[in-house]
Amino acid sequence: MTISSLLRIDRIACDGHGLCADLLPELITLDEWGYPVIPLSVVPHELERHARRAVAACPVLALRLDSTAHGVRRGG
Amino acid sequence: MTAFDPWSPAFVADPYPAYAALRDRGRAVRFEPTRQWLVPHHDDVSALLRDRRLGRTYQHRFSHEEFGRTPPPPEHEPFHVLNGNGLLDLEAPDHTRIRRLVSKAFTPRTVERLRPTVESLASRLADDLVADGGGDLLAQVAEPLPVAVIAEMLGIPPQDREPLRPWSAAICGMFELNPDEATAAAAVRASEEFSGYLRGLIAQRRARPGDDLVSALIAAHDGGETLTEQEMVSTCVLLLNAGHEATVNTTVNGWWTLFRHPEQLAALRARPGLLPTAVEELLRYDTPLQMFERWVLDDIELGGTVIPRGSEVALLFGSANHDPAHFTDPGRLDLAREDNPHVTFGAGIHYCLGAPLARVELLASFGALLRAAPGLRLVREPSWKPGYVIRGLTELLVEV
Q1: How high is the ipTM of this complex?
Q2: What is the dihedral of CA B183, B184, B185, B186, to 10 degrees?
Q3: Does A32 touch chain B if contact means CB atoms closer than 8 Å?
Q4: Which residues lie below 8 Å from residue B113, measured CB to CB, with a gap of 6+?
Q5: Of the ranges A4-13, B75-84, B98-107, the best mean pLDDT one
Q6: Domains of chain B
Q7: A25 touches chain B (CB under 8 A)
Q8: CB within 8 Å: A59 and B50
Q9: I need a surface site. Which of B5, B90, B354, B369 has the fewest CB within 10 A?
């Protein structure tokens, strides 16, 4: 089991500045209205630092990085 | 009423009635003297700041000729090289690479650690003003605080700080509309001197790194992403200039606003807990950056008007901040205003990197003066500097 980080967006707080997609284009794209889309929320280790900066740069603190343990198989 | 006229002192003194007229005229109003489309509504300003069909530069996609623009004359090159390599005038991928490297220094957490230093400096400046019986609030409090803070962050030694303000002022002259040849010549000279100074400082820090942002930029290696020396110089100039110009003007314009609303000033003195919403309201009520431009990289449509690639839109922050569609009774100063989505810090990928620092400085500066000088009074009505885009007073004479 490994510990990794998950990107989460507070959809109510998000105001669509798009800075996160600019700072972390590897993981975040924008939809047609300018709101972030995160197809894969697990942050690879080599992108952790960039992910933390994208989180810190969000003008409305809507992006979060949660540590989570995974590797345990869930049903399905 | 004075119509929109950035070169008219009467308009600069009070642009708000003209903004209301512009909002009534439409969503995109052509302004021939600058060949810009003026955008006066909050919804549109807010949306276009986030719109990737617009950019602060076009040179990452088009040549000057392809974009239908005349390249700047070669003698202006020192200014354009300096300005064009700064974060604020870059788009992805260069913007991404550089913002990643500098963002760490400006996160809310990093800035929070500076708060005690900023507060004690603000108190000292306020106490000095009181000890003098008053003076020029701009020169004695509003200016020295942010200049010292940003210079300290970058590691500019105190004895080197005197030319920073004149260099910045000369460079900022180019951000006004249709700058003349004398303005350009002064900006070019300041760009050369400022760049030369910073190249020397970078060389010193390469040899002996310190605990400052210049050393951090030299040392930055994020997955192989680094800054060229020109990018480092441009970033430092941008941080130094943007790190104080707007804060100085917000402080001084804010105090001038307070003096014109004595009942609100009295309420703020009686209830210091109002300060956080008061600072946001002062940022809204009279923003230091009145206009922010974007190039149209792909055709857009605004209220039935097609604005083609190659155009320039001028987003009117002061107007957006007074748009009744978003602010109840926008002409009224309400220091307790809770719902306050002002655009003073911009929006989108160029959202003010220094916003957390600016808030710490403004809270410290207004707080210190309110406490140290409970009877602060205006000595005489101030006058506005000629600039419209970066709008501020020449001085603010006060007594205690």
Answers
A1: 0.72
A2: 50
A3: no
A4: none
A5: B75-84
A6: 9-399 (1.10.630.10)
A7: yes
A8: no
A9: B5
